Amino acid sequence: MTIKRLISTTIYLFPLFAFAQQEVKVSETVKDFSGGNKSSYVLTIPEANIKDINSDWQKMIKKDAKGKIEDNKSEVKASLVTLKNVSGVPLMIYSRTMEAQGGIQLSVWLMEGDSFISTGYSADKSTAVQKYLHDFGVQEYKAVAKKQLEDQQNKQKQLEKIYDGFVKDQKNADKEVADAQKEIEKLKQKNIDEEGNIKQAKANKEANIATAASQKDTEAEKKHNKEMQGYIKDQEKAENNIKSNNKRIERLQDKIKEETANSAKAKDNQGPAGSNVDAQKTQVAAAQDKLNNIK
Question: What DSSP letter does each residue of 59-104 carry, written as one string?
């Protein structure tokens, strides 16, 4: 089993981030732009990125615009924009974006003919404009919340992977211990068999000596000597096998100690790792709840 991962893997305790839902706001005011100080609407989109808002806003008005869309970096001008829920005639729309505390402010001026839409100009049209902008703001805020949810889900997967790794480490270590214990039992049985071989070799040697002592024939003596050498080798082989088996047993016992420690360490790490997963699930639930409740 690889020990390095057990030793080097650190438990990461992620702080709990608040996923407080903020409000998408649309307010009506009078503001300066290239055309003067005119009635406008200010949309506040929480936590948004100005680059994304600029891009998505232009995409949104472009699909309803038959005229040009001009962007001079400080102001966007779109001509012949048809917003059916707002007006029956094409509008001229001016807009500016700026970073504000906690999000982005999108300021919009809508010109119908020679007049700028406002509540004083037309309450119904003003309400329709505010809904149009609010819907855009909700769309953008949901995109932010969705990205936050995905980030938290990815963190959960990473933490679950760490936890699963510790579970796997423990199982692998426990298997190594069990396999080593089985092998030790097999080696001990082999030693018992080899002890029997030694006993048999010694008995054969004693019988050979007794038989040889009663025989004076030269050829018979040579035969007994040859047999004796074989019995001696049988005993030496059995004794060497026992020594080899005992060395292997010692190595396996060391391995059992090492893997037992690895198993304990992996088990200890599962507690904090599991707590991290549980805490992250709370984060994911909060992020999901935030997304679900943006209106």
Answer: HHHHTTBSS-EEE-SS-EEEEEE--TTT-SS-EEEEEEEEEETTEE
> Is residue 150 within 8 Å of 281, Cβ to Cβ?
no
Give the single-character DSSP code of 112.
E
* Rounded Cα distance, 292 and 25, in Å: 18
The 10s digit of each residue's pLDDT in 184-194 is 999 999 999 99
Cross-strand pairs, 99: 104
User: In the predicted model, what is the mean pLDDT of the chain?
Assistant: 91
- What integer pLDDT is reported at residue 215 of this predicted model? 67
DSSP state of 44: E
**What is the three-class DSSP state of 214?**
coil
Measured between alpha carbons, how far is 122 from 70 in angstroms, rounded to an integer?
A: 27
Decide if pLDDT at 16 tops 60. no
At 110, phi and psi to the nearest 5? -115, 120
Give the helix/strand (H/E) hosting 206: helix 123-213
Q: 69 - beta bridge partners?
A: 78
Under DSSP, the state recorded for 22 is: -
Structure confidence at residue 13 (pLDDT): 46
Q: 276: Cβ–Cβ under 8 A, 6 or more apart, which residues?
A: 11, 12, 13, 14, 159, 162, 163
Q: Comparing C-alpha atoms, which of 31, 39, 22, 20 is closest to residue 98?
A: 31
Q: Is the pLDDT of residue 256 over 60?
A: yes
